[in-house]
Design brief:
This protein is α+β, with helices and mostly antiparallel strands. The protein contains two helices and six strands; from the N terminus they run αββββββα. It has a six-stranded antiparallel sheet, with helices on one face.
């Protein structure tokens, strides 16, 4: 899933930089200095996203990654968070 996120970020055309860090971490940085951190939490078998709007935990469910809190899909949530922090619509789907 992290490779899919990386590919989506590369193809988004958004004005952002991202770096793949050891241990399954993607750090996304925006021109305004804000960041989004996406990381694999191996012990919980989850992907965590930390953004300005909050923290989100996603679990695999029937081939999708969904939020435990509200059932939102990972890529849709990440697109929303990236759009908010970039200040322009960004599609990652």
């Amino acid at each position: 899933m992290l490779a899919r996120i990386e590919t989506a970020l590369e193809g988004s055309g958004a004005d952002l930089d991202f770096e793949i860090k050891p241990g399954g971490v993607i750090e996304i940085e925006f021109d305004n200095g804000s960041k989004i951190i996406v990381n694999r939490h191996t012990a919980a078998r989850e992907i965590w996203v930390a953004a300005r709007s909050g923290g989100y935990h996603f679990k695999p469910d029937a081939g999708r990654w969904v939020a435990a809190r509200d059932g939102a899909e990972l890529m849709a949530t990440l697109s929303r968070c990236v759009s908010e922090q970039a200040g322009a619509p960004v599609g990652l789907g």
